[in-house]
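Reopening this ticket.

The earlier resolution said the output was attached, but the attachment link was broken on my side. Pasting everything inline this time so it's all in one place.
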Amino acid sequence: MNCRISTMFTMLISEKTSHVILFLDSHIHHMEPGNDTKILEFLLLGFSEEPELQPLIFGLFLFMYLITVFGNLLIILAVSSDSHLHTPMYFFLSNLSFVDICFTSTTIPKMLQNIRTQSKVLTYEGCITQMYFFILFAVLDVFLLAVMAYDRFVAICHPLHYMVIMNPQLCGLLVLVSWMMSALNSLLQSVMVLRLSFCTYMEIPHFFCEINQLIQLACSDMFLNEILMYFAAAILGGGSLTGILYSYSKIVSSIQRISSAQGKYKAFFTCASHLSVVSLFYCTCLGVYLSSAATHSSHSSAIASVMYTVVTPMLNPFIYSLRNKDIKRALERINRKAGIKVLSVLGLKNYP
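Inline output:
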């Protein structure tokens, strides 16, 4: 009798133990990488992990960031303070300068903070937020360059109707639509990233949360994210570039029909600055992504990304100021009123 009770008790314990083991095993498998494990922070690896290079990188990027903010603020101040610059072209230019300040402020201050504190940690929420604003201002740059190309097209191809076509209502509407489309695209991209799962303590081989690098680290299905990313790049970026090329094809045709050499030079001069900025922005963007696709090196891609994320916004104020007498005249007025060497800082004091 005791033997039978002992046998039954042993079988009961064994059965309960097997249930517990199955329960734990199912939970362990549920927590394995590839499911809904939540990641709380990322590591931004930046450009170099060598300690002796950190002060140099910090100083270089701090200098470029300050020049970018100072130069673009001067453009905005010059346009807003001079009534002669209250035209569609300079209205779009001031908006571009504002977006360039926001564009660099999305990434550089955080990178400088990480170098200063010797910490590469960025929270999950911070990464998504940075990615959202980076996409927002990058697409806004593209849209504003396309709008400025359309403005130059109307000015050269339809000069007699320029002020009628490019009225304040249309200019404001073009900027508003650019903001709305950029915000919707950025929101959609960010929401699609939020659905992804990340498995472990993640390292991003970049100096900011770049969407392509972030998607590659996901351990869940990222097919829809890649489709959306490339579709948006083709529609928004490719569409804007097509509009710019079409505008300039019409501009070139109109310039060729001008009989006098002075008239041709004046028409081309009004487009030279914008054409330089467009070439710089698109060539650096295409160069970055084509080179990264060819070399498959994330570190090289991070270094190349500096060209369109930092260098291009920094050079825009110089490109629009060097040969622009209206901007120089407005800056001279600011210089006299404020008592600061604005032109000397920009290197324009003795420029013809």
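Reporter confirms the inline version is readable. The beta strands are 41-44, 121-123, 202-204. The two ends are 113 Å apart (CA to CA).
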